[in-house]
C-alpha cells in the first residue's frame, strides 16, 4: 500500500496508507490508515487538525513546486511531532498538492505545522521566529 499525503487548500494535511503519528517523546498518538494533521499552527489538538484553520482564515492554496515521482517501496510512514517545531516524516511518502500533482516523493522530510513557513508545506524554521508552541 502506498502512503499518500495530500495538501488540502487552506486546510489540513491528510495522510493515508500505513500511518503512525508520534509525539516528541516517541509515544504513539495514532496508528491507522488515515489522519488529518494541522498546518495552520492553531489547532487545540496538535498535531491533529481540529478545524481551527476555518476560523482563523489560514491561507495556502495547497500547491508547491512539482517533483518527479519515484518508486519508494512499502512500509509505514511515521510522523513525529517535534517539540515546538515541525513534523518529522520518515518512511515512504508521496505528497501531492491540492491539484493532485506530486510535490514530494521520498523517505524523510520536515513539514511546517506552525503555519508561517514561506516554503509551505516544508519547514523553513519560521516556528522559532514566531514562538510556536505545541
Structure description:
- It is built from 2 helices and 6 strands.
- The N and C termini lie far apart (31 Å).
- With 134 residues, it is mainly β.
- Strands 1, 2, 3, 4, 5 and 6 form a 6-stranded mixed sheet that branches.
- The mean pLDDT is 95.
- The longest helix has 5 residues, at 52-56.
- The protein has one domain (4-130).
Q: Level of helix content?
A: under 10%
User: Mean pLDDT, as a whole number?
Assistant: 95
CA-based shape: globular
Count of all domains = 1
Helix and strand succession? EEEHEEEH
Number of strands: 6
Provide the gyration radius in Å: 13 Å
Q: Cα distance, first to last residue?
A: 31 Å
**How many helical elements?**
2
Q: Could you list the spans in which at least 5 consecutive residues all have pLDDT below 50?
A: none
Structural class: mainly beta
Q: What is the strand content?
A: 35-45%
Summarize the biggest pleated sheet. Answer: 6 strands, mixed
Highlighted features:
single chain; mainly beta; six-stranded mixed beta sheet
Short structural summary:
The chain is mainly β and 134 residues long.
Topology:
Elements (H helix, E strand, L loop, with lengths): L3 E4 L5 E10 L5 E10 L14 H5 L20 E5 L5 E10 L5 E10 L14 H5 L4
Parallel strand pairs: 1-5, 2-4
Antiparallel strand pairs: 1-2, 2-3, 4-5, 5-6
